[in-house]
Each structure stands twice: as C-alpha cells, then as structure tokens.
Amino acid sequence: MNNPLYPWQQSDWQQLQNYVTQSRVPQALLINGALGIGKLHLAQTFTHALLCENSQQGGFACGKCSSCLLLKASTHPDFMEITPEEIGKNITIGQIRDLMEKLSLKPQFARYRVVLIHPADALNNAAANAFLKYLEEPTERTVLILVTHRMNKLPATIKSRCQKFTMAMPDKSLVLQWLSQQTPNAEIVLNLAQGSPLLAQQYATDEHTQQRSNCFAEFLAVANQTNHPVIIAEKWLKLPEATLLFWVSSWVIDLMRYRHQSAPKNLYHADFKNALSELAPRVNPLKLYEFYDLLLQSRRRIETQINKQVLWEEILIAWAMLNRS
Predict the structure, then answer these.
(1) What is the distance in angstroms between the CA of the first residue and the CA of the last residue of the chain?
(2) Residues 1-32, buried b or exposed e (16+ Cβ, 10 A)?
(3) What is the pLDDT of residues 253-278, one digit of tens each?
(4) From CA 12, how far away is CA 165, in angstroms rounded?
(5) What's 76's DSSP letter?
(6) pLDDT-based confidence at 316, cuts 50/70/90?
(7) Distance from CA of residue 44 to its chain's centroid?
(8) Contact of 117 with 144, CB cutoff 8 Å
(9) From its phi and psi, is residue 213 left (phi > 0), alpha (psi between -120 and 50) or beta?
(10) What mean pLDDT do residues 69-95 have?
(11) 7-168: what fold?
(12) What's the mean pLDDT when you consider all of the chain?
C-alpha cells in the first residue's frame, strides 16, 4: 500500500510508529488537535496498521491480508467504531454498554483489538462514566483510540487515563502546495479555514463558495437597508451556525482592517475587497468594535439552548442599527 497520509502528517505518523517499534502502544490513545487537520484519517490509518497481519515499509497496512480485507468489508471482529447514531447527537450509555459486552470476550485474531471512538467529546455523562470504568481495567490486547477537537469537553478523569497525542497545525507552505493542486483560490480558502487544510478543501467547493457569496450579499443588503434583518435571520437559520458566525466575524475583522489601512494585507475575504473597502468608511469604528463583542458573546451562546432564530435576529438588527448611524 502506498503512503495513505496527508503530506503534513509524516512526523505524526513517525511518532505513532515509535509506539509500535518500541512495543509501547498505549491502551488508550487520545488524538486531539484543531478541526480539519486529519485527526480521524490518521487514527484510521493507525488502526489499519495495528490490525494488519503483514505491515509494509513505513508501518502501513498491506491492504491485502485477511485482516485488511475484513476491515474493508466492515466485518473485522476485532475492530469496533463508536460514533453518535445521529449527526449532532451524543454517544449514549447504551452504545457503551454494548461495547463493554463485546470487549468482555477475547480478541479473535492474534494481533490487537482496536476501538475507535469519535468524536470522543460526544460521550454524554452517563456514557463517559461507564466508559471510565472500562478505562480503569482494560482487557488484553485492546487499544482504545479517541479522537476529538474539543479536549475541554472531555471529563478530566478520562483525559488523565489516556496517552495524549496532540496534532499541531500543519505548515502553511506545505498545505498551500497540496491545496493549490485542487483550487486556484488556495490562499483565500486556507485563510477562511484558519489554517485547517481539510476545512479549506471543503470551502473550495462551488456550493460552499456560492453560499458564502450569497450570505455576504445578504449581509450587505441589511447594511444598505434593502432587506430586513428578520427575513435574513430566518434564511440563515438553515445554515451551519459556527461556519456562518465565523463568516460574519471575519467580515467585521476585514472591515476593521480597512478602517486602519487603505490597502490591508492578509484579508480573510480578499475576493470581497471592493465591497469591504466601500463599506468600511461608512461604519463607526467604536460601534463596529461593540458589534464584534456581540459576535464573540454569540460564539459562546451558540452552543447553549438559546433560540437560534432570536440569536440571528439580535445580530442582524444590531448590524442594521450600526449602519444607520
């Protein structure tokens, strides 16, 4: 099998391979790092390598042995994957109890048994407590791999019983080289993704680009009083909150840059520079900073049970008022 890793993952892979060559594979490995840098892909590649019966140069799985074929068919008896049963939902205690029952049996193959849990921060309280009991007394030849980009959401008791493996943000030049092969707007989408290559790859799609352009046009329409904040809030309710909130925040940051510089560099949205440069002189800088504070507060509130329609109405009405002054 050829090297299946992303270009920026070579040093991470070498560290994982050191665990294998030194016979020190952790019983519980917690892979963490920013969103969109390939943590799950690295964990899956490591899983395949641990289960492979005929690993290749570099430690990668061969892809041809019986174990690899079973993995491809999703029928390997010594591999278990735990994820939320529905997108956006928690991993439940029922899922963990089913897992514990399977882990009470011995592995069927001579190598490792691997459990992949992602995102690990989706464990609800009851599931986390049940899983903690297993972590305290793990079974033989079992490797637990947990993947998360939100370490702070995991109970300290679980984190303390895992070997932490932190993936750093990849080198920008390396990512740009990889991304430039897929899109002519590599630098723009990478800035939008805050350096996360897989998010940037997603942002480069025609659908995402069009959606961002549409939302920016609606943002300008509210500023120009050609559309009502409540109408736009209702439309935005259907979009991913975190992504949309980042767009609005970064538009405001770019406006701040234009307030202080005639030709600012490192804009998040360089493709919108004409509209941003025209809008910037019209907005009161002090009120723009106050609006940005509201956006920062909204980042924290968006993960609560707040009514999202009300949240977007508040943001867009504040934006409309700012542009009337």
Answers:
(1) 63
(2) beebbbebbeebbeebbebeeeeebebbbbbb
(3) 999 999 988 788 888 998 899 999 99
(4) 9
(5) -
(6) very high
(7) 16
(8) yes
(9) alpha
(10) 94
(11) Rossmann fold (3.40.50)
(12) 93
Q: State if pTM tops 0.90.
A: no
- Tell me the backbone φ, ψ of residue 88, rounded to 5 degrees: 85, -5
Q: What is the mean pLDDT of residues 117-138?
A: 94
Beta-bridged to residue 166, according to DSSP, are: 32
Beta bridge partners of 32: 148, 166
Spatial neighbors of 109 by CB under 8 A, at least 6 apart, are: 51, 53, 67, 77, 78
Phi, psi of 20 (to 5 degrees): -70, -50
For the chain, which residues make up each domain, given as ranges?
Answer: 7-168, 205-322
Beta bridge partner(s), residue 123 = 91
Asked if 82 and 91 count as a contact pair (C-beta separation under 8 A), the reply is yes
**Per-residue pLDDT tens for 187-206?**
889 988 889 999 999 988 88
Query: How does DSSP assign 104-139, residue by residue?
Result: TSPPSSSS-EEEEESSGGGB-HHHHHHHHHHHHSPP
Predicted local confidence at residue 266, as pLDDT: 82
Q: Select from 224, 222, 245 the least CA-distant residue to 312.
A: 245
**Neighbouring C-alpha atoms within 13 Å toward the C-beta of 2:** 2
Q: Which CATH class is domain 205-322?
A: mainly alpha
Cα–Cα distances in angstroms (integers) from residue 16 to residues 4, 10, 113, 144, 265, in the given order: 15, 10, 17, 14, 39
Percent helix, strand and coil across the chain, each to the nearest 5: 55, 10, 35
Asked if 117 and 98 count as a contact pair (C-beta separation under 8 A), the reply is no
Tokens representing residue 60 in the block: 């990668």
Residue 215's nearest CA partner among 255, 251, 185 is 251
Per-residue model confidence (pLDDT) at position 2 = 67
Distances from the Cα of 228 to the Cαs of 125, 247, 256, in angstroms? Answer: 42, 19, 24
**Percent of the chain residues past pLDDT 90, beyond the cut:** 78
